[in-house]
Write a structure and sequence with these properties.
Elements: H1 3-14, E1 20-22, E2 31-35, E3 38-41, H2 42-58, H3 62-67, H4 72-92, H5 99-113, H6 116-127, H7 134-151, H8 154-168, E4 171-172, E5 179-180, E6 185-186
Antiparallel strand pairs: 1-3, 2-3, 2-4, 5-6
Keywords: Signal
Organism: Streptomyces polychromogenes
Pfam family, one: SurA_N_3
Amino acid sequence: MHRRTALSVSVALLAAAPLLAACSGGTRPGTAAVVGGERITTSALQAQVNDVRTAQNRSEQGARLIGATAGLERLKLNKMIQTAVLERAADDAGLSVSTKEIEDVRKAQLQQVGGEKALAAAALEQAQLAPDQIDADTRFKLLRDKLFAHYGSQDKALVKLGEAAKELHIEVNPRYGRWDEKQILLGDQQTPWITQKTMPEQAAPAGA
């Protein structure tokens, strides 16, 4: 898979609206970040946030969930950038994830938690995911784990992720924080590469 193709796949999975639009470089009004010469628009970022807020508002625990996710914009932008980084590193390693693999994980999730409603509630509560974001998050986790396995350790894979991030020349609109090249994350967000998990690995999406 070519690098541009990999990034395009990531865009299609993360949201119905395009996440990345052609850009001549550098942040400008309406731009949340520039990744690999393409921009993540503020409208695309807001669409991700709005999906979660809509799901939270429909929940009986809505007020608590919203109160606990004041930094949702930064969290989502962090994940969007890291997805592009992961796609680049996976493409360099010749790795990909099939639709069937995603479907198989979803079947296991549904069987373990007891159905779509329970899965949606768990994803929203534990990983700040709207229902239509679960499959993209599953793909992220599968691709991440393949990268770890391919290089034999998380540390070696993180080196490759760092190299991929440098190749993409990431720039972030200051309103969302500062991109940390060493940690491969935005500001003080936790990294999902190693530590963030929600439900058991085989049955639930990783943290956003």
